[in-house]
Amino acid sequence: MKEKGEITVFLSLILVCVISLLLGILESARTAGARLYLQMAADSAAASLFSQYNRNLWDMYRLLFLEADTDEAVMESYDRYIDFYMEQENLYPMKNDGSRIIEKRMLEDDAAAAFEEEILAYIMYRLPDVASNLAGITEAANEAAKAGDFKSLLETCRQAGRRTRKLEKARNSIENSLQKMEELRENGSTAIGKEQESKFRSNAGKLKVEMEKFSGYVDQYEDELEELKAYGESMEKQETLDDAEAAGWMGQEKTAYAGIIKPASEALTDYRDMCDAIDGQMGCIEEALTVLDTDIGGEDEEEEHDWGEIERLWNLLEIPEGTAQGEEDKEKSEALDRLEKLLDADLLSLVLPAGTEISGKEADLSGIPSERLKDKGTISFSPEVLLINEYAFLYFNSFLEETKEMGLQGEHILSYEQEYLLGGKASDRDNLKAAAEQMLAVRGAMNLLYLLASPDKKAEADSLAAAVSAGAVPVQFVVSFFILTLWAFGEAVMDVRCLLSGGKVPVWKDERSWKLGMEELLTLGFLEQENPGQSESGYGYEEYIRVLLLLQNRTEKNYRMLDIIQWNMRTIQPDFEVSACIYQLKIETTAVQKHVFLLKSEYQTVVSAEKKY
């Protein structure tokens, strides 16, 4: 029987096609698996890389960041992890053809936004600890906003009043000089009538000196007026206050201030004319003294003078008439000057409780994160900012609380860290001083609100303003406001001293909680009270720090927190740098792969892995 092979050949050809199809399908599945394997390797390598977060930073401040000096160091670690997967013997043969960072987000980027995200992620786990502080957080934000507006009002009124009083003092010097010159002229006339040579010489000499001084008084008046005008222009450029009440008082202050400038400018013109008139009469005094020095008597006669000629020359003197004004209460004016000088001095010594010892710690401000800050950011009362502030109270010390735990054995470079957030100074003393001054400003603003709403106390200030300034109504209005700011500030000194003693002060004062009377203010009696009366209700020192932090620029506050973290971290890790902390990375990897079931050459696959804390 004859055999045939057609079927065998046919089946062989079919088998080759079938095997090729199966191997093609298998290679396709392997290629897809290789791509997924590579992506898994990249993700796993990125996760492993981020597992190298700084343990000290986590233990001390519960912050997760990867610290690396250079990108090369990051990629070296990343490549080590991903190469482990590529070196495995499996159906996915590949090798690393290079990895690179295509996106990187550092701790300090975008106004330290990553720092804020880390804090917010952590603070959620501490809500039970801060819940009581968050109870009145909305009210605190509103009070901070109102305090901020009245703080601006207080500072404006204080500066305006100070400049107005300087102008008034310069005007008083001019008016007193004119009055003195007139008295000397009259005394000289009396001496001429009685032919009293020595008395005439004395009055003539004093009058000449006073005339020479007059132009200096006018120059001083002009300088003060220029400062007054310049500040008036700056007042007009100020932003409108959000609080309607504060804005209303500010409008009245600006109107009164503007009402001072025009009559003062007109008065300056008159004073300049007086200068010319007085300078033109100096010759009369000199001629009268020359005649007096001439002896008209004979050799055997007693010395005689031509008193008639002297009288004629003296009568040519016409002293300009000053502006009619009321009599200033010099005693109260001097008391107000002493108070103003006191409140412009070192206020920390006024508010510290007796026997208080201040920390002498200092920090090095070179190379700190806030040194690199360009934009301080804005003031924000958002919920995120309020929670970030609470983080500061969990981990940073203050004047009244120096026992915060940081974990490990790290030390606090500064003892008053919360105060550093407000002051940004190198030493604890300077930061406490800055915090106390800000607290005084806030308390002063809140106290000013009470004074403005109290008709009796407003009347006392108006009465004192009328006594110490004999000028026009606008002048008395501005000086009255100035007195109210000093009164509010004097009460604030007592308030802050109470807070630094561990007591509480009501946010808004009333008749019962107000401590300082006008008499005690002017006599500085409030400084003798070592332990001002404390209230059972109100805010304590830490609550006022919260209010002040709400009034702090957001980015500036964040960077100062980073300053503290960097200082304290360096006590256990000397080379720690906030600028080297990485929060998020996106890494691109190129892998060279080989086909297993195909004879084609190598091919490249690119994958990217993104990771953040």
Write the layout of secondary structure elements.
Blueprint: H1 6-50, H2 55-61, E1 66-67, H3 71-86, E2 94-106, H4 109-123, H5 127-134, H6 137-193, H7 197-237, H8 244-280, H9 282-293, H10 307-315, H11 330-343, H12 348-351, H13 383-395, H14 417-423, H15 428-452, H16 455-468, H17 473-500, H18 518-523, H19 541-550, H20 554-569, E3 581-593, E4 603-612
Antiparallel strand pairs: 1-3, 2-3, 3-4
Helix pairs in contact: 1-3, 4-13, 6-7, 6-8, 6-10, 6-15, 6-17, 6-19, 7-8, 7-9, 8-17, 9-10, 11-17, 13-19, 14-15, 14-20, 15-17, 16-17
Structural features, described:
By secondary structure, this protein is of the alpha+beta class. It has 20 helices and four strands. The chain has helices at residues 6-50, 55-61, 71-86, 109-123, 127-134, 137-193, 197-237, 244-280, 282-293, 307-315, 330-343, 348-351, 383-395, 417-423, 428-452, 455-468, 473-500, 518-523, 541-550, 554-569, and strands at 66-67, 94-106, 581-593, 603-612. Strands 1, 2, 3 and 4 form a four-stranded antiparallel beta sheet that branches. Helix 6 runs antiparallel to helix 7 (197-237), helix 6 (137-193) packs antiparallel against helix 10 and helix 7 (197-237) packs antiparallel against helix 9. The radius of gyration is 41 Å and the shape is elongated. The model has no long low-confidence stretch (mean pLDDT 86).
